[in-house]
Design a protein that fits this description.
single chain, mainly alpha, 2 helices, 2 strands
Length: 81
Amino acid sequence: MKLSNFDRVQQLIAKRTDLTVKLDHISTGNYDNSGLGITIRGQYQDDDMINACRQGARMEMERRIREIERELTLLGVIVEE
């Protein structure tokens, strides 16, 4: 990795970490759905609506994480699980 890419790598790692934490929260789906909230026009939706949206949100988070990991790899970073 080039030293000139260090700032970008730090930004990407921070963003990946944030997305990973969010993914963990929406994936757990504990009894009160506290990890994921859905609002429509400022009103929180019920558990059925949250559960209907959960998989789409999880898939999008995973896509964003993969995108960041691809960029990190191109910058010479070895991404470990």
